């Protein structure tokens, strides 16, 4: 891209997550237990609610447990027939990286996380990645971008620039990483947090599927001249 700003990026942390903190709440466990015919949960604390829910799920066959969780978490995104099909597929496949409808990936991961707790030897291991990065802008254009809300397209391009060309993100989205419209970026990074350090430097954390983000596992520092997608007027 012409006149692109330059950034220095330093990877400060790289962690693999089997569950994203806060993705399942006490209220969720109570509702799931009610659907599993466990109505009296008044005496259970937070740990007890989770333990009882996992135990109740483990009394089912894995596809039946998956169907119950999918109905709870994805009934607005999947038809009943799709829920039945994907409940079978979740026993063998990581739908949080394989399902064709990428905006559903994060919720598939949440389902896969709880399903894994109930059936740790029978279903795929959840493998989200949390990455913490410090980015420093060189020049006024870069500082201006850091002072604005960070668009997912910019974040994903920053991350891709620290990965080898063979990484899935660069192989499958090379044109978008290079500057073409990148709507899929919003489905690649599920959770984003950022905090400014000073005018030209900030830190950000992203969580997403290991399939897309594992390429940064060995990276320490690198440069990028990425820009976000243009803001569309409404």
Task: Describe it.
The structure is a single chain. The protein has 234 residues and is of the alpha+beta class. The chain folds into two domains: 6-17 and 127-224, no CATH class; 26-118, no CATH class. Helices cover 42% and strands 20% of the residues. The protein is built from twelve helices and five strands. Strands 3-4-2-1-5 form a five-stranded antiparallel beta sheet. β3 (189-198) and β4 form a beta hairpin. α2 (46-58) crosses α6. The protein starts with 5 loop residues before the first strand and ends in a 10-residue tail after the last strand. The mean pLDDT is 93.
Shape: elongated
Helicity, as a percent range: 40-55%
Biggest sheet character: 5 strands, antiparallel
The fraction of residues in strands falls at 15-25%
Structural class: alpha+beta
Map the helices and strands.
Blueprint: E1 6-17, H1 26-35, H2 46-58, H3 62-74, H4 80-89, H5 95-98, H6 105-118, E2 128-138, H7 140-147, H8 152-161, H9 168-172, H10 174-177, H11 185-188, E3 189-198, E4 201-209, H12 210-213, E5 221-224
Antiparallel strand pairs: 1-2, 1-5, 2-4, 3-4
Helix pairs in contact: 1-2, 2-6, 3-4, 3-6
